[in-house]
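Board notes, transcribed. Complex of a protein with protoporphyrin IX containing FE.
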Amino acid sequence: MRNNRRLLGWLDERTGLKKIWETLFARKIPESKGSVAWFYTLGSACLFVFVVQVITGVLLAMNYVPSPDHAYDSVRFIDKQVFLGHFLRGLHKWGATFMVVVVLLHMLRVYFMGAYKYPREVTWMMGVVILLLVMAFSFTGYLLPWDQKAYWATAVGANIAGQTPVVGSHVAKILKGGEEMGVATLTRFYALHVLVLPILTALLVGIHLFLVVWHGISEPPEKTNRQIESN
Ligand code: HEM
């Protein structure tokens, strides 16, 4: 115990670890009025689910093969043969749904508490882009098992994008990697799902959290004198 404390003290002197810990994790949030304080944990819940998605995603990628000939079999292999593979897939799949739900709940709490207003507009805008990235994760991830449901759902999604006026046909072609869905589509979606989107999301979440710490957390809105009088 004393040795641990000495080691931490040694590290703290050289890295400022304590200050970083206090700034990031031991921040003060507005005092709890009833259950208000619970709403402030939704951002951390988003972060937790994102980390779970990254960890389970990396473990799944170790056995997944992104080619139309092998993708479906590799997913079945994960389900049936890999140790805890079925559980891992379930966690990643449910995590994806849960991520959309908690991000939307977090967004609602920010909106209803007016926390998007000055000076937190950029934090809000970063959040909107993160929400779009979360949607893109769902869209690209859905295709990866390469079964009938995945194939046709993506075909429908790409066709909907194809209906956009003027740029539609180009967007559909870029998404599919050509005129038809095939090897290029799967490779493209895989690269987006495991490389581009995670890097972009991690970067934006980093900036988002930096801004949250920079501005400090907003106070819950107070009742105005008019509202108090009319009650
Ligand atoms: C992966 C997604 C996200 C993560 C990890 C995340 C994380 C966080 C955390 C930890 C906080 C501080 C605690 C809290 O208020 O709950 C926060 C605050 C905030 N977030 Fe997010 N967030 C995400 C998505 C979003 C989205 C989609 C929006 C809105 C479009 C948003 C807008 C904001 C704003 C404006 C604040 C400041 C709130 C205040 O000062 O009271 N965030 N976020």
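The radius of gyration is 22 Å. The mean pLDDT is 92.
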